[in-house]
Amino acid sequence: QVQLVESGGGLVQAGGSLRLSCAASGRAADSAHMGWFRQAPGKEREFVAAIRRSGSNILYGESVQGRFTISRDNARNTGHLQMNSLKPEDTAVYYCAAKTVWAPVETMKNQDYYPYWGQGTQVTVSS
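-> structure tokens emitted (127 positions)
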């Protein structure tokens, strides 16, 4: 029901910025709540940020709070993750995820509640 394509990853120096995009398509694309997760080599997948379809309930992982900003353009069914003050520890594959069924806000940090996933985009931060 929802197809996701991430873009915007790349190589950046520490302290720099990147803007990731997630284009959603499919029948339920305009009903999707969106999240971002990342996974670094040897580490578990980590919650990064999430946002409701309406734009409410914006959440961030502790490690990115104050540095990353999630937003969405519902007219284009596109989500964005602005990543500022990047650190080497931000290096990971970043995944866009979506769900269409409403659930309590605490579930927005749980990857198990997201049935739709993009292919991931690599973000590498050099020191």
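The chain has a mean pLDDT of 96.
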